[in-house]
Every structure is written in C-alpha cells, then in structure tokens.
Amino acid sequence: MSPSLDHAMENLSLDAHNIDPAVFEARLAAEENGLVENLQPRRRARQNAEDLLSELENNFLEPSDKFSTRWLNALQKSVFCFH
C-alpha cells in the first residue's frame, strides 16, 4: 500500500478502537427512527429518456468539429504521398 493509504488505515483503526459501543448503538437507533439524517452521498438524478437520447446523439452521431493530432498527421502524410 502507499504510505498515505497506510497512514489513513492506521487512523481508521485507531478511531474504531475509540468508539463507545453505547454511543454507536444510540446513533444507529436514531437513524432508524429518522431522528438523524443518514450521511450517505446523494445519488445522481436520473436523466429522462429524451435527454439521454439527445446527449448520445450529440456525442456519437454528430460530426466532430475537432480532429485529433494523430489523425491530422496521418492525413498530411497521405496527402504528401499522393502528390
């Protein structure tokens, strides 16, 4: 493991040893009763079908206004070969 990950795991282990079981159980009970908000990350809002279809069409079916450097170099080489 990387040094920073090792350090974080050590801190997590130390924090876990300092938890009072009664406080932990009380917190779980409060969450179950709706008294404490569960601190899970929010889920990403679902995209409706029309917006998703429009985004996919724009990304994959519309011609791009940019070309990669690799593609342009290959094009220049092929143009010079034919002249």
Gist?
The protein has 83 residues and is mainly alpha-helical. 64% of the residues lie in helices and 0% in strands.
Name some characteristics of this structure.
single chain, about 0% strand, elongated, 4 helices, about 65% helix, mainly alpha, about 80 residues
What is the share of helical residues?
55-70%
* Cα gyration radius (Å): 28 Å
What distance lies between the first and last C-alpha atoms, to the nearest angstrom?
Answer: 57 Å
| Shape category | elongated
- Main pleated-sheet profile: none
SSE order in H/E notation?
Answer: HHHH
Please state roughly what percent of the residues sit in beta strands, choosing from under 5%, 5-15%, 15-25%, 25-35%, 35-45% or over 45%. under 5%
Please report the number of helical segments.
4
Protein structure class: mainly alpha
Catalogue the unreliable spans: none
How many beta strands in the DSSP annotation? 0
Overall pLDDT confidence = 78
